[in-house]
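[agent] plan:
  1. take the single chain provided in the ticket
  2. run structure prediction with default settings
  3. attach structure tokens to the ticket
  4. add a short note for the reviewer (M.T.)
[agent] executing step 1
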Amino acid sequence: MSKTDNKKKKDKEKDTLNTKEAVKEEEVLEETKEKANTAEETGEGGNNPLEAELEKKTEEMEKLKDQLMRNMAEYDNYRKRTSRERMELEPEITAKTVTEFLTVADNLERALTVECADENFKKGVEMIYQSFMETLGKLGVEQIPSDGEFNPSLHQAVQQVPAQDGQESGMIASTFQKGYKLGDRILRFAMVAVVA
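[agent] step 2 finished; step 3 output follows
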């Protein structure tokens, strides 16, 4: 006989033994229930040790079931809480990350204002800038308008300039640094000069 045949034979014997044990346990349980029922019918249930054992096991099972249900509820609450916390943190993480990249946008803008002899090089920098700004737009980042009337909740006045012909007081004269926002959150205020 080969090793595989021996193993199959042993596995089959184990399965048979397990089945026999399971049947035997069922029979014992049935007998216990029958004895308990008989004891109840005859009024002998007060001192029957099998009935007491069955009652004790039933109580243990109920306690374990209750504990399992509590653990499941606790896990479900934990899962919901962490999901909610992650959703609340996502805008903060995005805002912090995008804020770090705003200096790149500033440097690209400065590069575009410098005179360049090679038009293809300047066009390449311009394409990179446009691509970068499109990516920021996909993330929900918007540029704060820095023309028109001064708004202290969007702009930071760093200089006041005297009014010239046709300029009204409180209007933005020039922009030193562009501002950006992500939804309602201000990432960086626009630095502007205001007409006095």
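[agent] step 4 note for reviewer: The chain has a mean pLDDT of 84.
[agent] ticket updated
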